Amino acid sequence: MPGNPGPNLGLTYGWLPGEPGWGVSGFNPNMAALDAVTHLAVLGQQNSPPGAPSAGDRYIVGTGSGAWAGHDDAIARWNGSTWDFYAPAEGWRAWNAAADALWVYSSGAWGAAPAGTVAAGSITTAELGGDITAAGKALLDDATAADQRATLGLGLSDAQLDDLFRAAAGIEA
């Protein structure tokens, strides 16, 4: 049975052991796609390719022209000899180095993420009402602070709150 493309990144999977398709047409493009879009960070958004890209450079294509024509909003990655393109899906996030901001693909367009957005599934500082680093450190320094952490009203267990404050304070568990 040949591999089938998955519904999210289009990665092919489902080959049986010994079945052809693991090389050039299967496994290798899958790894290239994962390398291109995992922990996505781009140098910026441009309409046309830069003059002298380095292998691995990634951009968000604006209104594509030249080698990028027909790839509006895609992630363009220079593989060392040609451009590879990855069409984003709703909710993709990318760090935009030129804008020094997290961008989100939403409603068919890339744009700055709403204030306080951190990562999928994360609690944002906006949801907590501001900077929690100092509060987290203070509560972690106080061995009797479990009751204070529990009164934050976030509906989290003591263990989840401990993890949250440790992450905010930069302290490993």
From TrEMBL:
Pfam families: DUF2793 (PF10983). This is DUF2793 domain-containing protein. It comes from Neoroseomonas eburnea. The lineage of its organism: Bacteria, Pseudomonadati, Pseudomonadota, Alphaproteobacteria, Acetobacterales.
